[in-house]
Model the fold of this input.
Amino acid sequence: MEWDEIQRVAVIFAHPDDAEYGSAGTSAKLARAGKEVTYVVVTDGSKGSSDPEMTRARLAEIRREEQCRAAEILGVQHVEFLNFEDGVLQPTLDLRKAVTAAIRRYKPDVVICPTPDRNLSMGVFVQHPDHLAVGEASLAAVYPSARDRMTFPELLAEGLEPHNVREVWVTGTGDSDHFIDITETIDTKIKALKAHASQVTSDVETWMPERARQIGEPHGMQYAEGFRRIEIG
Ligand SMILES: [Zn+2]
Done:
């Protein structure tokens, strides 16, 4: 679909901060254009610390606040926390149902989610098993369960009617075919990343623009984010 046709976008991701790395420049650009952007944060982020004094409950609370602050910086209107346990996520039917409910609730035209495929050439960091599980559950929720009336009838009983997503923009695939120029929002992206103070170090100001430049340059953009686009008939 054309950029102007897009009204609502949902970004579905595993950990507080994932969306800032992968697509925050795009989210800020969408929000500035008056589109409704929703974040669906699947896990509680409660394992992202090596500090022996830190507790899971406290870390989850810190990361929730950081994520809300990042969303505010970007102009993301809704942040839904699904609160699955960090680090041990599986693409179960429970996860698919929770993602389906979020899709039916916010009715996005476009869903942004991580790839479900492990690409061995990309290194382990972007291939966290929680990311792959969210990718699988998100694609399975987009098609068919968000669309199909008969699947998860308990959602219908809650008033969550079927919804057809028009496109999925998949992050972390290594073979992007859809590039969004984020030159005007890269500063906002970096600011949003820095809101995740428990996770991000200040060198993000150096390597993040460099990465966005490398993605954009072959496509005539100063800074870009890349996605694998799936159009749904
Ligand atoms: Zn992550």
Summary: DSSP finds seven helices and seven strands in the chain. Helices lie at 18-32, 56-74, 93-106, 129-145, 153-157, 186-194, 204-216.
